[in-house]
Amino acid sequence: KIGAGLQKLVEKAKVTAALEKVKAAHEAEHKTELTARLDAAVTAGDLTASDKASVLKAFDAGVLQGGPGPR
User: Fold this and answer.
1) Which residues contact 9 (CB under 8 A, 6 or more apart)?
2) Which candidate in 23, 45, 51, 59 could, as Cys together with 67 as Cys, close a disulfide (CB 3.0–4.6 Å)?
3) CB-based contacts of 42: which residues, under 8 Å, 6+ apart?
């Protein structure tokens, strides 16, 4: 019984680690895409560099939907 319980715990830890890795990759891709859009808006004069920094700060804090937020 102890062996089977330990096996399940190890399997759960592996799945959790894999999901966290996928989540981190998705968040990084999302931030890269957001940064590109913000760069375009700054270049077009629609936003300032300070505006861009504020949006990215909000993304990192999880204020924007899809941002990493607190861990």
Assistant:
1) none
2) 59
3) 48, 49, 51, 52
**DSSP at 22:** H
- Which pLDDT band holds residue 71 (cuts at 50, 70, 90)? very low
**How many whole angstroms separate alpha carbon 12 and alpha carbon 59?**
29
What residue has token string 């939907």? Answer: 65
What number of other Cβ atoms are within 10 A of residue 59's Cβ?
21
**The predicted structure's pLDDT at residue 64:** 84
Give the residue with greater pLDDT, 70 vs 4. Answer: 4
Cβ-based neighbours of 64, under 8 Å, separated by 6 or more: 55, 58
pTM (predicted TM-score): 0.70
Alpha-carbon gap, residue 53 to 71, rounded angstroms: 21
